[in-house]
Specification:
- This protein has 277 residues and is α+β, with helices and mostly antiparallel strands.
- The chain folds into two domains: 5-126, DNA-binding pseudobarrel domain (At1g16640 B3 domain), CATH 2.40.330; 131-270, no CATH class.
- It is 35% helix and 19% strand.
- A hairpin with a 2-residue loop joins strand 7 and strand 8 (115-121).
- The radius of gyration is 23 Å and the shape is elongated.
- Bound molecules: zinc ion (2 copies).
């Protein structure tokens, strides 16, 4: 699978791919490269420079240089088309050569400054949201000042290095939603003593911390969703299937994905809750 914006930020690349290491692949010490990961690797080395047939027939051509993530150590791994028809691209992994991911880990390749990097992480390490996304979603100050009439607090937000959000937009979105949770309008937790309405929080579906990656403003009426605190916590912290369910429902409400040219998989990826195969 191709890297999403979350991984592009994390690994400092615009070109990467990843997938799950199966127990079988670990046991056999070989990974079959498919889809985009094959395209990326072949594009880097050139189809004509990849050895066809058994490694032993031409060990020099079979061995390819990679940089190992995260420290950048140079390693050599055998990469071959086992069959004449080049229908399968195979990468050999071994502890001796310096790359032997466990079954169940996520392995990945990406290009950076002309080098091809390879590495692996456990699933929970992999699912960490990009720091940029997290930073701006620790947004208590934003939630707490939506109904605050004092402009000084807005100024304080500006002093921090975060993207400024227009609280008027958040209020407008809540009004348009009739002060109900956009995931489930039955969710009425308590009445806010500031708005005297059902208490809601404003959530940016495309995380505002990613603004640098988009030309269109992310602090927009379409991209702001009002959620009850339960749903808001869940979209950021719940297990993958639950988070996906909320994201899917929100994405269907307005054409946000179309506006920002993303598909539902990209969205899952931004929250690091995508299904990994
Ligand atoms: Zn949020
Ligand atoms: Zn809710």
């Amino acid at each position: 699978m191709r890297f999403g914006k979350n991984q592009e930020i994390r690994f400092g690349t615009t070109n990467g791919a990843y997938s799950l290491v199966t127990d079988r692949e670990h046991y056999d010490s070989q990974i079959t490269l498919t889809d985009y990961e094959a395209e990326l690797v072949v594009g880097h080395f050139g189809a004509n420079n990849i050895h066809v047939g058994r490694v032993q027939l031409n060990p020099q051509t079979a061995a390819k240089p990679f940089r190992h993530y995260p420290d950048g150590t140079s390693i050599e791994l055998n990469l071959v088309y086992p069959k004449e028809e080049k229908t399968e691209l195979r990468l050999y992994i071994s502890s001796k050569s310096g790359f032997k991911p466990e079954g169940g880990e996520i392995w990945f390749v990406f290009l950076r400054n002309g080098d091809i990097w390879i590495g692996s992480l456990t699933e929970s390490e992999w699912r960490k949201e990009a720091a940029d996304i997290k930073k701006d979603e620790n947004d208590d100050l934003y939630q707490n000042t939506i109904y605050d009439p004092d402009p000084i607090l807005t100024q304080k937000i500006k002093e921090r290095e975060v993207y400024v959000r227009d609280r008027e937009l958040a209020i407008k979105r809540m009004e348009m939603a009739g002060f109900s949770c956009e995931y489930d309008e039955e969710h009425k937790l308590f009445i806010s003593r500031f708005s005297r309405k059902n208490y809601l929080e404003a959530h940016h579906l495309i995380p505002i911390g990613l603004q640098a990656k988009f030309t269109t403003a992310l602090d927009s009426l379409d991209n702001i969703f009002c959620l009850c605190p339960y749903c808001h916590r869940a979209v950021h912290h719940a297990e993958e299937s639950k988070a996906r369910k909320i994201l899917e429902k929100l994405a269907e409400k307005r054409p946000v994905l179309e506006t920002y040219r993303l598909d539902i998989h990209d969205l899952f990826n931004l929250y690091a809750v995508e299904e990994i195969v």
